[in-house]
Design a protein that fits this description.
The chain is mostly helical. The protein is built from 5 helices and 2 strands. A two-stranded parallel sheet has the order 1-2. Helix 3 links the parallel strand 1 and strand 2. The longest helix is centred in the first third of the chain and has 19 residues.
């Protein structure tokens, strides 16, 4: 997970300032493929967040384009603005929800042992 975060920081700083619509979408696709390759998976928990949603007049990507991209990537799409605190916490909570759902699918919780199994299991304490 740390590697993905480092890749994310690097990509944001180097590649997405300024954002240009055509190359932006291509970079997002490449970025997702890079994460999946590094994680050696076909899917991994991600969300797509359009930032600076408060700058409506300077918008370079429409909300519909963002939603369409998210559908193609099979991820959740949200728009946020740190300046006016719009959807910042919600984006974080959505990412946590997506991560937890992914983890549950990867390793579902084991069923609770029956009372009989509990009785037969003995004590798991170690006295030193």
């Amino acid at each position: 997970m740390l590697l993905a975060v480092q890749v994310l920081r690097s990509a944001i700083v180097q590649d997405f300032i300024p954002v240009l619509t055509g190359t932006f979408f291509e970079e997002i696709y490449k970025f997702q493929r890079q994460i999946l390759r590094v994680k050696d998976r076909d899917e991994f928990p991600m969300i797509l967040v359009g930032n600076k949603a408060d700058l409506e007049l300077q918008r370079q990507v429409t909300q519909e384009e963002g939603q369409q991209l998210a559908r193609q990537l099979k991820v959740t799409y949200m728009e946020a603005s740190a300046k006016i605190r719009m959807n910042v916490d919600q984006a974080f909570h959505e990412l946590v929800r997506v991560i937890r759902k992914f983890q549950e699918q990867e390793c579902p919780p084991s069923p609770e042992p029956t009372r009989k199994e509990k009785d037969n299991s003995g004590c798991h304490c170690v006295i030193v």
